[in-house]
Amino acid sequence: MAFFEKIKSKFIRSQDKDKYLTGLSRSRKSFGDRIRALSNSFHGVTDELLEEIMIILLESDMGIHTAQKVVELFEERSKEIKNYDSMEDYLISILYDFYNPEQDEDWSLQEEGPTVIMMVGVNGSGKTTTTAKLIQYFQELGKKPVVAAADTFRAGAVDQIEIWAERLNAPCVAGKEKQDPASVIVDGCKYAKEHNMDVLICDTAGRLQNKLNLMRELEKMSRVAGKQIEGAPHETWLVLDATTGQNGISQAKEFMEVTPVSGIILTKMDGTAKGGVVMAIRDQLGLPVRFLGLGEKPADLRPFDLSSYLIGITKGLEEE
User: Fold this and answer.
1) Which of 16, 143, 221, 285 is most buried, by the most CB atoms less than 10 A from its CB?
2) HEC letters along 112-157
3) What is the pLDDT of residue 320?
4) What pTM value is reported for the model?
């Protein structure tokens, strides 16, 4: 069985398949359709073909270093490629192996007490909106989430998350303007424990202009959370805007300098044709992608699934 058929059989049983197909349609048109167009002139793995693949990878926002690695792996397997169909199949399998999901540990909720998730990212990345979408995600799992609105320095940030929480009928521990963010985290931890909540999602500030202040702020928030709830924060998720591409990766590297990051949430994937940034994130940051934003609605934030992602940006299910 060809590699694509193996991952497709799993994909068609996925509850998220429609969201992946719809949310990644722009990337599929720019990436998958262009790969398929190579079939018109396929005469084996030539230097010209490798150059064409490199261009497509670069324009999908994989970045030069990542794209070069993928092309080199493709060239190494070139003797196994007999026709266009096998070429496309091998490229998909190479991307799968390159990401290598088996090396990641799955994140999970704590068996006892609240799980504390720290949300970090620059202003404009969709961090506060993503925090709200996570509320609904955990509610769908039958869990009780509470959010701590600790971005007390950006005008309107607290109001924004409060409105979302009210819509989703979830409690929100809100800080006042200019309040010490760490004190909001303490209040959030206390609320989560006293009300037997399953998850505490902490929306933090996104300033990178002064990394020293940000480092101290994030360190303090993590420290006070750990004093209130053992092991907290259990996850620190960095929110990146997919439409910013390589600039988002540069932002991620700066955040990783100031706080431990356990995973990436990639927002606005439906708004970009450059879906290859997932591979660049994996290669350049060495972090797992935990969620993809595949639309504007709360239900459009879905757990990252590599097989669904690869099908979404390459073939889709158009042949059916």
Assistant:
1) 221
2) CCCEEEEEECCCCCCHHHHHHHHHHHHHHCCCCEEEEECCCCCCCH
3) 42
4) 0.94
